[in-house]
User: Which sequence fits this backbone?
């Protein structure tokens, strides 16, 4: 039975990698994407239904929490702040580890992820933005996967393709994705696969997608930017600090998205821990005078003549 699980998960993962890279026909590509989008949600509904019969066990709960945090850090710390924006530097072992965890999250290949995000910053909330809510919240949240062009790896991911470690992690995405689903199965069987695999993936991915949708429509704006980015504390709590999205758009390379003690940013705490352990260096932060200059404020009162 274990081998059938391994084969099935590996086949779907391999198909997803090809789909994200648009190497299969359009109809089949959309079918696999639909399965990827719906499968974890169906698994979540199944898990909720099972709760009526028996409460979640400690192993399953631990798998969900630990893997949610680990793969979430893989996205925010690894794919986003380290890979996409080079917000800090770290050792090859740490880089490889966080990128592997990001691949386990099931959000596609790391170079594709970074390329799409850099394109988003280049055209934020304008024509050309892969997931602007100007085309609707559903499009920004999930629909863009089905309608957008392939990631422009040559334009936005050239430096990443030249990096041997990143290229290796990108080529082996399917291995890490399968591992992220097989590990909870080996630990706790089908219920482990359900909670540590499908449910974890559904919660984390939709929390991440909410940064593209919710954080461009609902929340506060601490800085004047040329887009509709917002700070949203609920999304920030679910994504380990990514919800401080207006801050991020104001200073994209900034390693710490939370800019005060009230804006809790667990990813920033993790980076500070890596610095303390001498595993991270060259952490990028904006100068105080630049922060003051970009602060949002009330519109100036027009001057009146005497």
Assistant:
């Amino acid at each position: 039975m274990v081998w059938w699980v391994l084969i099935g998960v590996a086949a779907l993962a391999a198909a997803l990698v090809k789909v994200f890279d648009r190497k299969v026909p359009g109809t089949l590509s959309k079918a696999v994407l639909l399965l990827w989008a719906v499968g974890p949600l169906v698994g979540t509904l199944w898990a909720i239904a099972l709760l009526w019969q028996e409460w979640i066990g400690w192993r399953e709960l631990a798998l969900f929490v630990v893997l949610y945090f680990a793969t979430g850090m893989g996205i925010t710390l690894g794919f986003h702040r380290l890979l996409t924006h080079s917000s800090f530097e770290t050792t090859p072992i740490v880089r490889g580890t966080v990128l592997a965890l990001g691949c386990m999250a099931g959000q596609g290949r790391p170079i594709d992820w970074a390329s799409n995000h850099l394109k988003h910053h280049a055209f934020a909330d304008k024509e050309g933005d892969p997931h602007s809510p100007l085309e609707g919240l559903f499009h920004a949240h999930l629909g863009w996967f089905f309608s957008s062009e392939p990631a422009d790896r040559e334009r936005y991911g050239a430096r990443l393709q030249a990096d041997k470690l990143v290229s290796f992690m990108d080529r082996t995405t399917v291995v890490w994705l399968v591992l992220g689903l097989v590990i909870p199965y080996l630990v706790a069987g089908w219920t482990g696969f359900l909670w540590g695999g499908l449910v974890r993936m559904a919660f984390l991915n939709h929390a991440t997608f909410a940064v593209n949708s919710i954080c461009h429509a609902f929340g506060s704006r601490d800085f004047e930017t040329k887009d509709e980015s917002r700070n949203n504390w609920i999304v920030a709590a679910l994504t380990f600090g990514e919800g401080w999205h207006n801050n991020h758009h104001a200073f994209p390379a900034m390693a710490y998205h939370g800019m005060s003690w009230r804006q809790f940013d667990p990813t920033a705490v993790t980076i500070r821990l890596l610095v303390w352990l001498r595993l991270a260096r060259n952490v990028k932060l904006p100068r105080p005078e630049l922060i003051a200059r970009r602060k949002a404020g009330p519109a100036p009162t027009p001057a009146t003549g005497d």
